[in-house]
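Sorry to interrupt, but I need a hand with the structure work. Could you write out one complete protein record for me, on any chain you like? Just paste the record in under my message, thanks.

. . .
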Amino acid sequence: MALIEWDSSEKQLRLLALLQKDGPGISINFVFETAIRYSIEQRYPATRMRYFSTTTDLNTAPTYAFILEEGIASSIHIRPPPHGHDLDLLRSSLVELIEKFRHRIENDENVLMMSDAHTLNMFHEVVSTYFPSIVACSPSSPVELFFMTDEQMEAASKTELPSIDGFHADSVDVDRDATTIHENWVHSASLQSTTARLRHLPSSVIRDSSTGEACAWMMSSVYGQCSNLFTIPAFRGKGLARLAELHLMKQFISLGLRPFKYIDEDNGEVAAARRNVLWTQWERRREADIGLVESGTAPLFYTMIKKK
């Protein structure tokens, strides 16, 4: 088979329209909705986003859709089908996809990959069978998805930033803040990639009003998820993380973007997010309610492809 590449703004908008035929506002489209918009706006020049899918008659959503990120960071995002997997189609698609991405795998230190459990299991099988000399996969890490509904976005836009004595919300100063954020981010690929994200994508920082130093922050990725919420240990327990998050959410909403985030399944922040009235946790039954069949698309998983 041959994967279709959607290699122009017009084609990418058409792909998004086809994916949205599976239902409005479904979680598996969040990444494509933001990434395609960023690509069309050329918001993030540090990487090139390439979009592929399995064949389609151009009137129905393709079974599988893929994003390949190439540049100072490399990653693969695979949208699982909402109506159940076709494992033979998935296997052949992954073989072709990895072959297309071989040059990145061979030249990069590691490549991040994200999808659902069925897809990642098949991905590991394909890698070990067809490409055993190229890469090894690290164990998959499950994450929970939280997002804002339209009502929550409206509520967040009307919520005033809380006042915390001695601190204030601010924009990131890339020259001043990038190194501090990079050094405190366990998942940072490099200072270069962290700097690029801070320079081109929405982010927020909370500063000590007396020194101007960054005490807490949150940033976002080219895929659109809010990430790396962090408070320097000496400043924890003051509500700075919640302030940084709300500050970033307001930026997303003002840009017409839907805030969403992934939290590691064993992270204590999952419980806090469940209690927060501004977040909704993705649940299979929500999408079943709008006519989609449960297909094992939650939780989502990250895995890292590393050169042997």
